[in-house]
Amino acid sequence: MDLLDFEAKDLYFDRPDAPEVERLIKQAAEDYSSEAELPLLRAYFLAPESMNVLVALNRFYYYQHRLEDALSATGKALDVVRPAIGFPEDWRDLQPRHIEEVPPDLLTRVRLYLFALKAIGFLNMRLHRLDVSQSIFEKLVELDRMDRIGAKGLLELLQQCRAKVGEAATTGQ
Question: At 128, phi and psi to the nearest 5?
Answer without folding.
Answer: 65, 30
